[in-house]
Amino acid sequence: MPVTLSESLAKLKMDDPLFVRNLTIYPLSNGGGSSRKVVTLAEAMDAGTVDISELEAPAVEEIILDNQADEPLFLLDGEEIFGAQQARVTTTAALIDARTSVPVPVACIEEGRWGGSSSFEGSFTSTHPRLRSIICRGVNSSLKSKQSFRAPQRLIWDEVTRKLTSLKVSSATSSFHDLATTLADETARYALDAEELAGAQGMIVAAGKDILGLEYASDADLFKRLTPRLLQGYALDALERRSVGNPASRRELDRFLDRISSLEPSRYPGVSLGQDWRFEDRRLVGRALVTDDVILQASFFPC
Length: 303
Hints:
six-stranded antiparallel beta sheet
């Protein structure tokens, strides 16, 4: 029997908060966790063991990922992939088997361009939690009605445009990649030393009393490798909140965890390996990737 979400979260201990500029990060750990050898998208691109390209007949909502490594490749939801015909964002997390080529569901985050090469150049960062929550809720709805990972494209474009305007970044093609690279020095200031999250398997991130999201991984090493990219995304939301009040209380954080634990998943086949679990109520939205009866990775956002 696969472990339940409530069982996984019940074992977690909330450690003392870390303060990074106007973000507060609450590390979560249980001193254990599973260990599975996987490579992240950033690592695979650095090593040259992944090839990402357009379909033979290019389509906005799908690309081809060829994992050429000897280990499975973990793809985070909300990862930006730029180049080719237009920049895209992954619409769910996935574990791509070793030596396997699969179609991957994506959405466009560059409204003003359709043209270029057939190959993608790289992946710079994760998108911000507000955009990831929009994608998550839209995909939840699409899975229920169409059994597909289709994201709400118009809402995604609107959010990218809103973010560009709010943070005063100019982009000729309304590109999230332009936003992320322009503000790279700013978001880098939210980086944490790896030792500050040593042993953590997750975190709750808040700006003042506003909880922005929860990130979890069953493997502490995987969580450590994902954290820099995740924090780049959270930093983009933090930059819109130049000043914040007192941090969320422990009672509010516990209530947030309890609400997540109470959600029952809808289960769907994963993109490659495992199952894609979906969670939603009127105040929360989330997803989890389950492999080998373990919740490998999960993300939750208030809405």
